[in-house]
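Limitations

Structures in this collection are predictions, not experimental determinations, and the ligand pose is part of the prediction. Treat each record accordingly. The example that follows, with zinc ion as the small molecule, is included so readers can see exactly what is and is not provided: the inputs are given verbatim, and the output is the predicted complex.
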Amino acid sequence: MSREDNANGRAGGSFKEPGPAPGRVEDVRRGNLVRVLAAIAQARTDPQRYPTRAELASLTGLTKASVSSLVAELADSGLVMESGATRDGERGRPGVGLQLSTRRGVVGMEINVDYISAGLLDLGGALRASRTLECGNRGQSPESVMALLSGLVNGVVAEAAAAGIEILGGGLAVPGLVDTASGTVSSAPNLQWHSVALELGGLLPGAPLGTVLYNEANCAALAELWYGHGLDFRDYLFVSGEVGVGGGLVIGSRLFAGPHGQAGEVGHVVVDPSGPDCSCGGRGCLETFAGQEAIFAEAGIPAGTASVRLGQLVEQLDAGNAAATSAVARAGRYLGIAAASTARLMNLSAVVLGGHFTRMGPWLAPAVIESLANHAPGVVSPARVAVSELGQSAALLGAAGSALRSVLAAPSALTPAG
Ligand SMILES: [Zn+2]
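Predicted complex:
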């Protein structure tokens, strides 16, 4: 949100000072575009509640003339559209509701160890298309995985074109430490990628904002905040089970990523100093007890693809198999230990379990709750240990949502005068 004074000079009163310098006028215009767009974005998806121009003026403190001009600019650039619903405006005059355009969209993408996925989110926040391809990416070259992803993305782009949706940009989630600014994967041990600069420009060549690289667990953590159903948490530890164990810290409804963007790596919190060696080079990390391999091995699930093994594990859990329930309970105990320490350290009161943990939720969550009660009594109540409903699509939604928010934060990059 802009901190600039509004364009109609309310903060300046009636002093007869020279007009603002041209650069400042431009800054004010950009700031006001963001304010109007944010006010439209904050409206509910109920057509009866889409704000009118008059309501936007009162929400932003701008004059109706300014709002009309800014809305026209946002509509010209395709970011905003009239909802078509007329509703009562001031003094009984009808007004037209405004919403983020469903004819513009962003693409969320994910590379994980055993699958890749891509999905189209329109600016209104609806997932319009989604594709997933199971493939073993561990140890594969970044070029070959990016080529596969590019093929998947092309399919989504074609679906967008058929639906008349113009793509503005995208976000790619990768399970590892990333440098967003340079588009570099610093370290993704489970892919065996280190210091890899990805060819992000090739993914959405026609999109004005290009593709931005994100950490997978951070994306999934944010997706719970933006698209999770029934959760009212604003401060939580998100723990994502995949081949590795990822994590994200959401504090005050914002991701806490740390000074180098690498906070929240709960998978590499040490839960047993004498435990097994970990892919990070350390020992006894949470991942060595709660990662897929650890759980499958402990449960005696035979080798195979990750999705088949997960299906077998859930079948055995359903059947009450002792080895399977004990393996998942063990993972839950260690998850509880890591979550207890994290909750104490960061003053958090909620935990959300995502990724493959969602499939194990009924058996895993009770063990996590018991472990939290043992190791941090009274800090996280049982009602605040939740299982994600987004599952495997969380990272994709979070990557797309991050791209969408970068559009909303800098609409002037897309407006004609931008
Ligand atoms: Zn580790």
